[in-house]
Amino acid sequence: QVRLVESGGGLVQTGESLRLSCAVSGSTATIDVIEWHRQAPGKQRELVAGFLNGGSPTYGDSVKGRFSISSDSAKKTVYLQMNSLKPEDTAIYYCHARTFSQNVYWGQGTQVTVSS
Question: Coil, helix or strand for 74?
């Protein structure tokens, strides 16, 4: 079992920054992929950024150059640094993990609202 707990969301203005955190606990050694996804009202959930175990980070086209994913293995935390935020970044942001045995886990989500 893997548990994911997101934090760091909030209300910001256009152009500002936020850093989201995803605290990972449980069977962390079984994780193959860890990602951030988001879902805006009326839209499908989309990939924002992610790590394939041992690989380079990947990003969704809409956030390239503005968002950065990182991790702190000692703290078992994955971060999403979001810069130059836009109103269209408004969404619930979810942490997602997939294990080597293809089990999938989601956090409860954290709301990010960007005002214009």
Answer: coil
Q: What is the pLDDT of residues 77-112, one digit of tens each?
A: 999 999 999 999 999 999 999 999 999 999 999 999
Q: Any idea how long the chain is? A: 116
Euclidean distance between CA atoms 85 and 13, whole angstroms: 8
Q: Quick one: tokens of 12?
A: 């910001």
Which residue, 101, 90, 106, is CA-closest to 40?
90
How many CB atoms sit inside 10 A of residue 72's CB? 10
Nearest C-alpha neighbor of 35 from the set 83, 94, 113: 94
Compute CA 116 distance to the chain's CA centroid, rounded to the nearest angstrom: 22
Strands 31-39 and 10-13: unpaired
Residues 6+ apart with CB under 8 A from 23: 4, 5, 6, 7, 75, 76, 77
Q: In this structure, what token pair is assigned to residue 32?
A: 């193959």
Q: Over the stretch 27-41, which tens digit does the pLDDT of each residue have?
A: 999 999 999 999 999
User: What value does the mean pLDDT of the chain take?
Assistant: 95
